[in-house]
């Protein structure tokens, strides 16, 4: 005859197997990640940040033992995607991969952000630095930074300078350039860097600060002219291009980062 | 979780093929960790805040 304890065990065992026994639950909780991790990219597919996110995330998957899924959420000068992540559950399954714009620039402009980039997001790692080039269309007729500045001063307000995102770091860099060199230049906002490059190539836009990947071939082919890099050192991919520091303008040194951030309360372990 | 993610990304530093691919693109693989990243964010915030204030840019947009 079975004891009451044995009877209870036999009755409850199938139930435990159906819903998962305690030891299994404990194992799942420690086995992070146990499902794909969303990486929100606040620009459209195919943009420089998007490519960088996909390359970095794919390479890290074997080291993490999990999968990343890239989700593009463009809009509001990158504010939309950043806001989504800031308001996501801090469970380690939603990350942001972004340029500096929504983290360090947008907060200074209206409309106010619906999240606090200092309080609601925590930095993880910078995936890549993107050296920036000062690019002009060949028919502008300037071949050096000094010639560019002289042209701008001689033609106040006439140079059209593309900026990707009105509240972005490239706009800030242009404003710094205008101030330090004493130039009056008209900025032309673009939603897409690709459209700005088309306009540079077809003489509808005079100049722009751009990262290298989308224009490297055009520079090598002579279809666009790179006057300088804003990077602290020369860039290996285009080693003939001088730095702004070499050209006597160290105040123009900067680089754009693309980095991963998470909701602030995401646990360390 | 954060620790595991950071560790996974920072292991890419020794990925020669990835480094080469990124360099050829014209970018630089960084993998700078949370402490230094936070410092860069704070420095950028100060720098851009100063540009916005001095240029009175916030009211122009």
Structural class of chain A: alpha/beta
What is the straight-line distance between the termini of chain B?
40 Å
Choose one word for the global shape of chain B: elongated
CATH homologous superfamily assignment of the largest domain in chain A: Bordetella uptake gene, domain 1
How many helical stretches of chain A? 10
Order of helices and strands of chain B: HHEH
Could you state the order of secondary-structure elements of chain A as H and E? Answer: HHEHEHEHHEHEHEHEHEE
Beta percentage of chain B is 5-15%
Helix content of chain A: 25-40%
Number of domains of chain B: 2
Q: N-to-C terminal Cα separation of chain A, in Å? A: 49 Å
Q: How many helices of chain B?
A: 3
Q: Which two chains touch over the largest interface?
A: A-B, 55 and 45 residues
User: How many strands in all of chain A?
Assistant: 9
Summarize the structure in words:
The complex is a heterodimer of chains A (269) and B (61). By secondary structure, chain A is α/β, with parallel strands linked by helices. Chain A folds into two domains: 4-130 and 257-263, D-Maltodextrin-Binding Protein, domain 2; 132-252, D-Maltodextrin-Binding Protein, domain 2 (3-Layer(aba) Sandwich). Helix content of chain A is 36%, strand content 22%. Chain A contains ten helices and nine strands. Chain A has helices at 4-19, 22-30, 48-64, 79-86, 101-105, 117-120, 145-154, 169-181, 193-201, 216-220; strands at residues 37-41, 68-72, 94-98, 121-136, 160-164, 186-190, 207-211, 225-229, 255-263. In chain A, strands 1, 2, 3, 4, 5, 6, 7, 8 and 9 form a nine-stranded mixed beta sheet that branches. Chain B is mainly alpha-helical. Chain B folds into two domains: 1-30, no CATH class; 31-61. Chain B is 66% helix and 8% strand. Chain B has three helices and one strand. Chain B has helices spanning 2-10, 16-25, 34-54; one strand at residues 28-32. The longest helix of chain B has 21 residues, at 34-54. Chain B is elongated. Classes of the chains: A alpha/beta (269), B mainly alpha (61). At the A-B interface, α3, α5, β4, α8 and β9 of A face α1, α2, β1 and α3 of B. β4 of chain A pairs antiparallel with β1 of chain B.
């Amino acid at each position: 005859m079975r004891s009451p304890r044995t009877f209870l065990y036999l009755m409850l065992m199938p139930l435990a197997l159906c819903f998962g026994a305690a030891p299994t639950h404990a194992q799942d909780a420690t086995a992070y990640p146990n499902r794909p991790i969303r990486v929100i990219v606040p620009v459209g597919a195919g943009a420089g940040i998007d490519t960088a996110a996909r390359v970095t995330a794919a390479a890290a998957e074997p080291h993490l033992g999990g999968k990343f899924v890239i989700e593009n959420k463009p809009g509001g000068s990158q504010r939309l995607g950043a806001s989504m992540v800031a308001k996501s559950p801090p469970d380690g399954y939603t990350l942001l991969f972004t340029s500096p714009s929504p983290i360090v620039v947008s907060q200074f402009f209206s409309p106010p952000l619906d999240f606090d980039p200092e309080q609601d997001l925590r930095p993880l790692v910078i995936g890549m630095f993107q050296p920036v080039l000062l690019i002009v269309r060949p028919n502008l007729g300037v071949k050096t930074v000094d010639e560019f500045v002289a042209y701008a001063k001689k033609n106040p307000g006439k140079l059209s300078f593309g900026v990707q995102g009105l509240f972005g770091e490239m706009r800030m860099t242009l404003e710094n350039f205008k101030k330090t060199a004493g130039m009056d230049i008209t900025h032309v906002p673009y939603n897409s860097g690709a459209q700005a490059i088309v306009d540079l190539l077809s003489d509808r836009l005079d100049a722009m600060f751009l990262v290298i990947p989308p224009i490297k071939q055009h520079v090598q082919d002579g279809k666009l002219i790179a006057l300088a890099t804003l990077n602290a050192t020369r860039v290996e991919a285009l080693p003939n291009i001088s730095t702004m520091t070499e050209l006597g303008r160290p105040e123009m040194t900067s680089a754009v980062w693309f980095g991963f951030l998470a909701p602030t309360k995401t646990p360390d372990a | 979780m954060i620790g595991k993610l950071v560790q996974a990304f920072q292991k890419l530093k020794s990925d020669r093929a990835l480094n080469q691919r990124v360099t050829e693109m014209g970018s630089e693989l960084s993998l700078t960790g949370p402490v230094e990243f936070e410092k860069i964010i704070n420095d950028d915030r100060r720098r851009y805040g100063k540009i916005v204030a001095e240029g009175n840019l916030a009211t122009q947009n």
